[in-house]
Amino acid sequence: MVAATFAATTACNETNPLIYSVKGNVPDSLNGQNVTLYACEIKDKKIATTVVENGTFEFSDTIESPLVARVAIETGGKKEDCSCVLDEVPVVMNYNGKEFIVTGSRRTDAIVEYYNIREEHNKNYRKSKAPSLYEILKSGRKHQFTEEEKREMEEVKVHNKMVDDAFLNNLEELVKRNTDNVVGAYVFDYLYDGNGIDEEVTLQDSILAVAGKEFLETPMTQRTLAAKRQRIGQTYTDFELPDNDGKMHRLSDYVGEGKYVLVDVWASWCMGCRMETPHVKEAYAKYHDRGFEVVMVTIDADKEDWLKAMDKDGVKELGCQLFDPSSTIRDLYGISSIPCSMLIGPDGKIIDNDLRNDDLENNLSKLIGK
Predict the structure, then answer these.
(1) Degrees (nearest 5) of the Cα angle 14, 18, 23?
(2) Backbone region of residue 221 per phi and psi (left: phi > 0; alpha: psi in -120 to 50; beta: other values)
(3) Nearest to residue 91, comparing CAs of 66, 115, 114, 73?
(4) Among 75, 171, 185, 265, which lies 20 to 30 A Cα-Cα from 334?
């Protein structure tokens, strides 16, 4: 658990740059250990590295706007992490070998509160003693659940639902108190996963409607705004990507003319994606002749990994297979996690998204007929 104490924040100066300062006090036993400062946006990015000397370390530089950051200290075989916000108020981190005490701006207090909420959620969460479906699929073994296992799984499910509801409520309240700053955007991105899922649209939009400039201009929020392109009822946004032979294909080459098109974003390393592939193959075999098309887009960085996965999963001849090592589609549609899928109708509007298990079959049976 990270503790925080409050230091008053002055209004952020509209003129750039901001000068930030992070000072740390640690046990002398950590002298000579590396300390790394990371920017925490969509992906962590290393800003600077220093070394502990005489039980202290320090970072100072300029930035264009407040930034959520993470400090990682090597403590002999492992790393201890602590978060803060780089802004106009100096950050002080005191580490006693067990926990950090952090002082800084209101933004830093907010990011500390966020991680405390997450830690409390993890403490209260329970794991069933019975094997999960993922564990069963991964092992390849069959498992027949006993009545006792079923009862215990249901109890865990009910308990965790209560824990999750409290967790999400706490995060929503934290966001609402920080719609004027980067921490609100950071938690907002975690809360909604950047996916624009439709049942959360009203609350998302209500928060975005009152959010300030600092909140709205973060990369996380820009991704969330892009994710609106995934929403049901939206007209698809076109893209162009190469297949295995380098031939370019546009999504618009497949949408229209009475066709229903599934856009399936995946990667060879994504087990969740590959667990959904059999459902796509079944639907394609059943409905392709009646106007169903598949456009699968991999975000693999390594082409060989993609080709091996296609061969193993038997999808080389399944619809149109496109290669996107630069993750163009993730930026275009604000995709924060995969698998990600969208079913597009003949009119170019998105019918459904985030399809799992039987969702695709259920949609197509109604749209095209069994």
Answers:
(1) 145
(2) alpha
(3) 66
(4) 171
Q: Give the domain ranges of the chain.
A: 3-120, 128-230, 240-365
Amino acid at 206: S
Tokens 């069994």, residue located: 370
- CB 56 within 8 Å of CB 78: no
**What is the CATH number that goes with domain 240-365?**
3.40.30.10
What's the CATH class of domain 3-120? Answer: mainly beta
Strand, coil or helix: 4: strand
pLDDT in tens, the chain (370 residues): 444 443 333 344 455 689 999 999 999 999 999 999 999 976 789 999 999 999 999 999 999 999 999 999 988 778 899 999 999 999 999 999 889 999 999 999 999 999 999 999 999 988 877 777 667 666 777 788 888 888 888 898 899 899 999 999 999 999 999 999 999 999 998 887 643 444 556 778 889 899 999 999 998 888 888 888 998 999 999 999 999 999 999 999 999 888 999 999 999 999 999 999 999 999 999 999 999 999 999 999 999 999 999 999 999 889 999 999 999 999 899 888 899 999 999 999 999 999 999 999 999 999 987 6
CA distance 195 to 370: 30
What residues contact 117, with CB distance under 8 A and at least 6 apart? 167, 170, 171, 174
- Three-state secondary structure of 264-321: EEECCCCHHHHHHHHHHHHHHHHHHHHCEEEEEEECCCCHHHHHHHHHHHCCCCCCEE
Assess contact for 250 and 237: CB atoms under 8 A.
no
